[in-house]
């Protein structure tokens, strides 16, 4: 079984949903920079604010309700290296988001 290589985390990409509903793809460095500057709040705070601003349901959201799920999308290194897939990678990430 292969494990994650910590020396390659700089290659990670993060899909971030902007306020206008557009999905942005950020490199690991961009993501860390945005978080450090407070441009991207932590997920719990984001979800809490979104519910407070926009929730219009008829039932109360339970205190112990699942509010978000972290998700990691991956593929085999062999697949990710195929040149014909490189131009489709961002579209794949956005579709999964």
Describe the protein's architecture and organization.
This protein is of the alpha+beta class and about 100 residues long. It has a domain at about 5-70. About 40% of the residues lie in helices and about 10% in strands. It is built from 5 helices and 2 strands. It has helices spanning about 30-35, 45-55, 75-80, 85, 90-95, and strands at about 15, 25. Strands 1-2 form a two-stranded antiparallel ribbon. A hairpin with a 5-residue loop joins strand 1 and strand 2. The longest helix is centred in the middle third of the chain and has 12 residues, at about 45-55. The model has no long low-confidence stretch (mean pLDDT about 80).
Q: Give the SSE order as H and E letters.
A: EEHHHHH
Give the biggest sheet: 2 strands, antiparallel
The tally of strands reads: 2
Head-to-tail CA distance between termini: 27 Å
- How confident overall, as mean pLDDT? 79
* Biggest β-sheet: strands ordered side by side in the sheet: 1-2
Query: Cα-atom Rg, whole angstroms?
Result: 17 Å
Range of strand content: 5-15%
Sequence stretches where pLDDT stays below 50 over 5 or more residues: none
> How would the global form be characterised?
elongated
- Indicate the percent of residues in helices: 25-40%
- Which structural class should the secondary elements be placed in? alpha+beta
Number of distinct helices:
5
| Oligomer state of the chains in this structure | single chain
